[in-house]
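Example record for the data management plan.
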Amino acid sequence: MKHSVRFILTSIGVLFFSFFLVPKQAFAMEFRNSDATVTVGSGETVVGSLFATGKTIQIDGVVDGDVYCVGQTVLVKGSVNGDVICAGQTLEVNGTVAGSIRVAGQTVTLNGYIGRNVTALGQNLSIGDTSVVIGDVVSAGQTITLGGVVRKGFLAAGETALINGTIGGDTNFMVNSLQLGDAAKVSGTLTYQSDKDAVIATSASVGTIVKKPLPKRMENGKNSREKLPKMWGAMQRPWPVSAVGSIITFFLLSVVFIFLFPGKTERVVDMVSGSPGKSFLVGLLTFIITPIIFVTLLITIIGIPLAILLMLLFALMAFVSKLFVALWVGRKIHSSFMKKKGENWYLAAAIGVTVSYLVFHLPMVGWLISIAAVFIGMGGMVGIMFSKGMVKKGRK
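Corresponding structural encoding:
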């Protein structure tokens, strides 16, 4: 009776988040997977969000929701009415994206219309002459090129930044080389951190210019927080409202992993469940060793592409690491409530993600639990990558 009451209360909580806080279009989802090409035809409309994996992802039609994809080549020529969240070797957007773009790839090219913000990580990022970004751009890469229009701010870190377009807000560049061409126009304050003076064409239009030396160390203490963008304060929301976005995002992501990679997902969760302490240590060592390998690869020119790919893989693994801990928690709660044998991974994901991310967003202590979960999840993923096999434990 006691377990039944707890299960009912948890279910009510999950249903509350699902039906009252999740947008209706989030329930419409389509999954496409292929070893070759996944295509949305020019006359086709996908209702809801699209989850796709394949060697090539090509969207010529309309996606009436978000796009989550992983592929060697990602091409968006049609329209996406939500966000584009993808990773691949080559990513190119020539169409219209009503929401934000969050991508990671070796080469990222934007030539279309982006209704909100752009967050991009890659070796080469190019915002072409025909591209319009309504919001902010946050990017990191070896070479960053802007030829189009960014209505708000531009934040970039990398080796070289070439600006020959329009930036409507303030900019902050942390680069070795900064060049502004004849058509460059920066309405706000141009702040750049570099050991070299920026090369600015005489016909470029720039407001206030502030040059700072490259930082030699990260600042600690309260003063460093005061230097964060003003938008930081606007992003702060009281608990538990602050957790709603993460719950929605990672529940959808968990559905993708369970649907497309059921075996690998279960193996990672089993690894975490079997030895969370060992997974924590492996994850901690991974966070220590990976930057060392990254710096070592950067020493040689040949190693730079490998270093970029390594950090992309590391960033993606760090991003999803807490998800496997949430699935572990959800499976434990689910198994304790259900008397029948067998598992419902989707219900376990709904419960685990809701409970875990509410805890991760707790004031004062949530960040510490969140870091521990990142280490545990990372350790679980690294563990199955280097293990020859794994004996699955029987679950009652």
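Summary line stored alongside the record: The longest helix spans residues 303-337.
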